[in-house]
Amino acid sequence: MAAPSYGLIATFDTAPEIYHAAAQVRDAGYKNWDVISPCPLHGLDAAMGLKRSIVPRISLAGGITGFCTGMSLIWWTGAYDYKLTVGGKPLFSPMFAFPVSYELTILFTAFATIIGMFIVNGLPRHHHPVLKYDQIKRGLDDRFFIVIEARDPRFNLANTSALLAKLGGTGIKELEA
Amino acid sequence: MAAHADTAGHPAILDEVKPAVLPRAILVANNRSFSWITEKICGIIEGKTPVWWWWCFAVACFVASFTVAGLTYLVATGVGVWGHANPVNWAWDIVNFVFWIGIGHAGTLISAILCLLRQKWRTSINRAAEAMTIFAVVCAAIFPVFHVGRIWYAWFLFPIPNSNYIWQNFRSPLEWDVFAVSTYGTVSVLFWYIGLIPDLAVLRDRFEAAGNKLRSFLYGLFAMGWRGSNRHWSNYEMAYLILAGISTPLVLSVHTIVSFDFAVSLLPGWHTTIFPPYFVAGAIFSGFGMVLTLMLPLRAVYHLEDLITQYHIDCMCKITLATGTIVGYAYAMEFFIAWYSANPYEGFTFINRAFGPYAWAYWIMISCNVITPQFFWFKKVRNCTWFVWVLSIFVNVGMWFERFVIIVTSLARDFLPSSWGYYSPSIVEIFTFFGTFGVFSVLFLLFIRFLPIMPMAELKAVTPQADVHGGHGDPASGQETH
User: Which domains does chain B have, with CATH numbers?
Assistant: First the structure.
């Protein structure tokens, strides 16, 4: 362990254990840490002290862009670039422009949501210290992990390790950076 | 199961009124563990390709070749090889388009609307239903794209600058349809993909452990480096919820706009305000029919009885019953309005549907769509899997005939008897449509062979083990610990 490590990882067997352990790590004042779980656990966000996701704001921006794109596309093509009267109807009306704008609102929202989710999550990232851990496969199967990063100001190999052990974590191990 | 009498910290009134204990439905039977779910779902992909799969795949490819042959002949010769001619200028192409797009709608309904309504039973069937949506949209898209005639000009449908300097007519519902269907296809793929990410990560790790570098790389590429971080899950869950939230108005709007193709015209039998809700109900009805048709054999073949329980089948049957009854009501209401409007053309159209030259199609439609689902009132019927499957086939057949009746009978006899006609499909149309079942089956077989047919992460999340309170959740709600 000559090289500086990424942090410590500890294994937990059940959802209630990880839930209580996460709450205590949060209360111990750690900031740069994470829980690895095979499925989203209801209530774990609060136990970790996570704020509400900012993805909805990105989605909203996408939706507004989509709606404006639809309206301006139809106005520009039909009432500005090439004026063509069809069936005596107006060159532009928000009424007939609505269905297409509505669909584009949804389309742009969907892309903004997914791309926003990836950006906020820092994905794609195919190489990560956590993924090097030989037992990490279980974290997508049936085990839960707590990872506390070494860059956390409160991180101290001995104390943090003791905390994880006290919370019921097993197989506590340093992760290579 | 989660409800119990721990009233500490709750209003005293609860002791007096004794709220009913609503047992939570068991969504994964036999209290299966997380790793059992992983093994079960991944095992399907990792195991040796079963012999039946190769047989089905061969047959599906053979059937799909009919579409390829039909379309090749069509493009090489011209749309004249299809049977439609004045006055029926929309025929099998649009019937098949609406039929397939309707089938897709149940997938979105299951993944989006049931997600918003917190119907957790959706988790067992949503992945396959979403796959069904995408493949149905693929089959649907074939028809409008090819019925434009000169397929190499199909890009004229989209507002792409071209040498004519002319733009699309955005006043037309047909142009709205272009945007509705292409948005629907795209958002369905995105929704399906976001659901797949955690499961692809599981497969990446398992194939890596098994030493299969290529497949591990391919699954890993699309898994985007997912590592199960709860900070990621938090954003992921939010993104999933938003996609569900926008897919709900999307699915309703798509079939509404499809119905505008008809309702905005002046043709008797098409020009009705009931079309949007009636089309949406019909789409969900046919989609659930198709979900049952696909999932019941899968359940039997892969022994998924613990994941698709009788409760799931009951739920699907009941939705089929409800939407089938709405469709039946819409048929009756169309007749009533035709009479009540006192419009002789409208009245004639409906009498003609039931007793005219296409009466055979009309009565097939009524018996399949209105009578068939009524069997689902009976628990005995819902418990009899093979019978449910047979009924689901009738639903599919009935909904194809519904579109045929709406489109063809209205066009064949409109205002002037001098311009009446009778439409029969040509062999090319029959080939093309028959083949789409093969196209659909090929895609679906590839899906069940290479991708997890059920969302493992979501299944795990509805098991009791995922309850962070260890099954001693909030007693106030009495049923949900979430």
Answer: 50-456 (1.20.1630.10)
Residue A35: the pLDDT is 87
Q: Indicate the pLDDT class of residue B480, thresholds 50, 70 and 90.
A: very low
Cis peptide before B344 (omega within 30 of 0): no
- What is the C-alpha to C-alpha distance for residues B348 and B261, in angstroms, rounded to an integer? 22
Query: In the numeric block, which tokens belong to residue B295?
Result: 């999932």
Q: A118 and A124 in contact (C-beta within 8 Å)? A: yes
- What is the Cα A54 distance to its own chain's centre? 9
CA distance B436 to B426: 16
Contact A163, A25 (CB under 8 A): yes
Cβ pair A111:B190 closer than 8 A: yes
Which chain B positions have a beta carbon within 8 Å of A9's beta carbon? none
How many other CB atoms sit within 10 Å of the CB of residue B63? 18
User: Which residues in chain A are closer than 8 Å to B224, comparing Cβ atoms?
Assistant: 118, 123-126
Question: For residue range A151-161, what is the model confidence (pLDDT) as tens digits?
Answer: 878 777 777 87
**Is there a contact between B173 and A123 if contact means CB atoms under 8 Å apart?**
no
Task: Tell whether A56 lies on the interface with B, counting CB pairs under 8 A.
Answer: yes
**Complex-level ipTM:** 0.88
Which residues in chain B touch residue A55, judged by CB atoms under 8 angstroms apart? Answer: 235, 238-239, 242
Cβ atoms of B442 and B61 within 8 Å: the answer is yes
User: Average pLDDT for residues A130-146, to the nearest whole number?
Assistant: 78
Model pTM score: 0.84
CA–CA separation, B3 vs B5, rounded Å? 7
- Torsion sign, CA atoms B200, B205, B208, B210: negative
pLDDT at B202 over 80: yes
Q: How far apart are CA A157 and CA A150, in angstroms?
A: 8
CB B181 within 8 A of CB B141: yes
Which one, of B112, B131, B40, B123, lies nearest residue B315 by Cα? B123
Range B136-153 burial, b when 16+ CB lie within 10 A, else e: bbbbbbbbbebbeeeeee
Phi, psi for residue A11 in degrees, rounded to 5: -100, 140
